[in-house]
Every structure is written in structure tokens, then in C-alpha cells.
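Field log, afternoon session.

UNIT: design team B
ACTIVITY: writing a sequence onto a fixed backbone
BACKBONE:
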């Protein structure tokens, strides 16, 4: 965090672990954020880094709605997801996806604030083989190392 005071036009991102006391929601405590826009600046405050990330996604989404991409309505919002698991599944059993296209889907998931990815490997069996892993696991795949430090190819 910068020691200077916010200037006009600044976007201020901050983590405040005491913030959950203001909102009675378990989801807010993990992934929520407050989004405050004044005539001077934009302030996104959350109890966790995830919340700050989701707040920045909201800011970008609002900016896309503005023709000049430079204006955000003044006001305050308190936001958090209603569902703990918000996911997306790719059917990799019937269609090939390159590593680059999977990375694009992961970026898209972040844009829509999704937190679980599923890869349906085989739909022909009674148990479909749908496996859910968190996005951080698949980010590890991009690096070639799983969260546990194992080679990701062994995790399939």
C-alpha cells in the first residue's frame, strides 16, 4: 500500500480484514468487497485478496459499459457471491483444446468471477468422469507443477 494519500482519479485497492464485521455473510468474508466511487477516486476494499480481485473485475465491467471507457457512476456497492461454487465445464472427452485455449477459458472464468473449472473427460460411462478442481490447480498446470509440487501429468 502506498504511503501517499489518494489523488484525484486514483483507483485505491485495499485489504481490510476487519471489514467482514460490517456485513453478516460468510460469502462476503471470503470473496466480498465494497466498491465506493466519489467525485475524486474509486476505492475497492475487501477482507481478502480474492475480494479485491472481484472488485477490480466489477470496475472493468462498469468501464466497458461507458462509451469513453473512462467514467464510473458515483455511489457505493457492497457485493459478494451468493454461491460458494461457481463453475464452468469443458468437454475435453469429445473435443481437443489447446493449452492456449484452456488459458483463455481460465481468463474468461476470472472475468465472470467463476471459481471452479471442470473437465468432462468421458461421458460414455455411468460415472461421467467429471472432475472439479479449483482454478489455482489449473494455473499450476500452466506452470507444469501442481499445488502439491507433483508433476501435473500424474494428476490426470
Amino acid at each position: 500500500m502506498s504511503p501517499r494519500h489518494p489523488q484525484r482519479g486514483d483507483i485505491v485497492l485495499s485489504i481490510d480484514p476487519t471489514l467482514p464485521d460490517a456485513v453478516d455473510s460468510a460469502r462476503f468474508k471470503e470473496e466480498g468487497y465494497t466498491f465506493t466511487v466519489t467525485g475524486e477516486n474509486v476505492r475497492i476494499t475487501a477482507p481478502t485478496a480474492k475480494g479485491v480481485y472481484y472488485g477490480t473485475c466489477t470496475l472493468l465491467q462498469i468501464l466497458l459499459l461507458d462509451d469513453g471507457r473512462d467514467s464510473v457512476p458515483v455511489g457505493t456497492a457492497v457485493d459478494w457471491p451468493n454461491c460458494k461454487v461457481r463453475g464452468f465445464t469443458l468437454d475435453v472427452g469429445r473435443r481437443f483444446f489447446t493449452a492456449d485455449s484452456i488459458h483463455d477459458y481460465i481468463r474468461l472464468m476470472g472475468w465472470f468471477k467463476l471459481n471452479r473449472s471442470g473437465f468432462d473427460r468421458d461421458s460414455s460411462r455411468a460415472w461421467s468422469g467429471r472432475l472439479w478442481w479449483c482454478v489455482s490447480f489449473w494455473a499450476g498446470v500452466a506452470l507444469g507443477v501442481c499445488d502439491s509440487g507433483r508433476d501435473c501429468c500424474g494428476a490426470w
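LOG NOTE: Residues 75 and 110 are 24 Å apart (CA to CA).
NEXT ACTIVITY: expression trials, pending approval
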